[in-house]
Amino acid sequence: MDVLDKFKAAQRAGWAFFAPLQTFTTVPAARLVGHAGIRSGMRVLDVACGTGVVAVTAARMGARVTGLDLTPELLEVARTNAALAAVAIDWHEGDVEQLPFEPGTFDVVVSQFGHMFAPRPDVAVAEMLRVLKPGGTIAFSTWPPELFVGRMFAVLSRYMPPLPPGVSPPPQWGEPSIIRERLGTVVRDIVFDRDRISAPALSIGHYRDFTEKTAGPVIKLVETLSASDPAKLAEFRAAYDALTAQYFDAAQNIVRQDYLMTRATKN
Ligand SMILES: C[S@@+](CC[C@H](N)C(=O)[O-])C[C@H]1O[C@@H](n2cnc3c(N)ncnc32)[C@H](O)[C@@H]1O
């Protein structure tokens, strides 16, 4: 297995526990569907769809939806979600860096906090644009590096081994200047917008406990440090709590998670 295959296998294993976090990603899914201008009858691809919150929302509006994700456990939940919502969706286990679709298949390609985890941004975005029709819309939500979740990745990176060579840090996808560069001249009319997830939390400790059990990169770090260096784990937890404290609104029992939305038209 080469470095990238190993990286993706670790991603697949880490994201398997993500399903409870769909309570956070359900509301922004509707925002992304609106931002992307998804309408009835459109052919839509939700890349790194996880439990399918964006896919199901688009399908409820009458779009013809395909969802693709690396992690089979999440696709199982996605199937249940589609059944509960009484919508039909074409689910695929796969990799955004190698999409199993013909060029120009979709009217809209979306990804919510998803394609940003592919190791090679240039490959991922080239694939998303390849399967999009000329005149179609690419739209995604990502975590800016200077806001809560992006800063959380920075804290994590202080306690983890460096990313393997050739793997790009996910929060770079939250920088408008980098996004413009990556989308390049293949698109026009780039539009940015921002919104907020108000994640329910009874305390800072509850928030950390929940993410330690559900968020792939945090699960991995806690697993590694629990076995190798409990003192460093305690240090990480203190740093994580100190960061969360800056975004925890005790009067409302929420943690503010602001994010960036991007939309562009393929030439
Ligand atoms: C933070 S979750 C977001 C899931 C979902 N889009 C949502 O909003 O709830 C990140 C997702 O990216 C998926 N993922 C990571 N790397 C991927 C890749 N190379 N190709 C496809 N999916 C990938 C994971 O399996 C996981 O479902």
Q: What does it look like?
A:
Helix content is about 45%, strand content about 25%. The chain has helices at about 5-15, 20-35, 55-60, 70-85, 120-130, 150-160, 175-185, 205-215, 215-230, 230-245; strands at about 45, 65-70, 90-95, 105-110, 130-140, 185-200, 250, 255-265. The model has no long low-confidence stretch (mean pLDDT about 95). Bound molecules: S-adenosylmethionine (SAM). S-adenosylmethionine binds next to helix 1, helix 2 and helix 3.
Question: Layout of helices and strands, plus pairs?
Answer:
Elements: H1 3-14, H2 22-35, E1 43-47, H3 53-60, E2 64-69, H4 72-85, E3 89-93, E4 106-112, H5 121-130, E5 132-142, H6 148-159, H7 176-183, E6 187-200, H8 204-214, H9 216-228, H10 230-245, E7 248-249, E8 254-266
Parallel strand pairs: 1-2, 1-4, 2-3, 4-5
Antiparallel strand pairs: 5-8, 6-8, 7-8
S-adenosylmethionine is lined by residues 8, 11, 15, 18, 22, 25, 48-51, 53-54, 69-71, 74, 95-97, 112-114, 117-118.
